[in-house]
Amino acid sequence: MGAQPQVAPRDNIMLAYQHKVPFYMPSMFTDVNLFQANPTMERFCGHGIGKDGFGVEWKFEPKASAPMTTQNHQIDCITDWKKITFPDLDAIDWEKQAEIDGKTDMMALVATGNIVPFEDGHSIFDENNDKFNMCMVINGPFERMHALEGFDNALCDLIEEPEACADYFAAIADWKCKYFHKIATYYKVDGINAHDDYGSAHNLFMPLPLWRELIKPNLAKMVEQVHKDGLIYQHHSCGYIEPLIEDFIEIGVDAVDTWQGGSNLNVGELKKKYGDKITFCGGFDNQYVLEQPNVTPEEIKAEYKRVIDLLAPGGSYVVYPITIGFDYMGPFMEEHFGYGMGFYANAANR
Questions:
Q1: pLDDT digits (tens, 9 = 90+) for 32-73
Q2: If exposure means fewest CB atoms within 10 Å of the residue's CB, which of 65, 85, 105, 349 is most exposed?
């Protein structure tokens, strides 16, 4: 592989978000500073049991390397959502919080659930930072809904209490918009990576017309707010999300991850059809390849190459695997630097 062009990671990955061909393969591991804004507000951080800013109780689960909600639900039905006190965003000292969050090691937070600073004390918001600063905002409207009342209750309420669901989704979307604006105002940030899962391994959690009626209009408000603040909006949704691609494009979503390879089997065709309208991020089969206990380095490298050959031609693509652990990283990054970084040097791939 020859020498790479001297292009800043932020400038390089922005080409992908503009649905263009970057100079070299952009990756969340090399081009992005991922951070969270006041992470304990949305989810308890640390081991043991604790509550987030909404009063939801979480328990750290070692097998998942993350906290999960307990069965001590705040409400039993979404008709009672007004009993929930949303965190007061105006009561937070955001300048102080941004200073803390800039020095938090996100890899350590994801891997251990603990908030710890970088060992050298640096901040990702330092002036010499040339990476793309992406704020990960977890627990989107639907995720917050089932965190409050439990997953089974949430699925039932979507069918049985659509009016209450509509009122709740509108309220939480307005709160999210205000949260996004606080992030844009107080943080040195380039994009928002908002999380809200809509699918199981092979199906949506709800009928598509219901998603369009209850969630889509509020998601559109959130995207609009991010764009008003001059930021990129990247939506994270695990599981099967193929039926939503045209809706994402319609409301202005700039990029989507994670396009799990074991769930979205037609993602290659979708990239060919919509790659000039939305950026594809990820596409890796984390469940059955990257995070399999006995996966070999050769299998990890083959999975990397499969996805790059499928989704990277023509640009508008970012290497963006979302996984629980990072045991696969050695051979994955070896293939990234050995194969991926020189991919666009081949004129046929541009």
A1: 999 999 999 999 998 899 999 999 999 998 887 789 999 999
A2: 85
Global confidence as pTM? 0.96
**Residue with the two structure tokens 């909404």:** 54
Residue 115 in tokens: 């908030």
Q: What is the CATH number of the domain that holds 100?
A: 3.20.20.210
Evaluate whether residue 280 is within a structural domain. yes
- Per-residue pLDDT of 277-323, as tens digits, reads 999 999 999 989 999 999 999 999 999 999 999 999 999 999 999 88
Q: Does the bond joining 258 to the residue before it have cis omega, within 30 degrees of 0?
A: yes
Give the max Cα distance, the chain: 61
- Print the domain residue range for 232: 9-35+79-106+121-349
* Count of structural domains within the chain: 1
Residues in the chain: 350
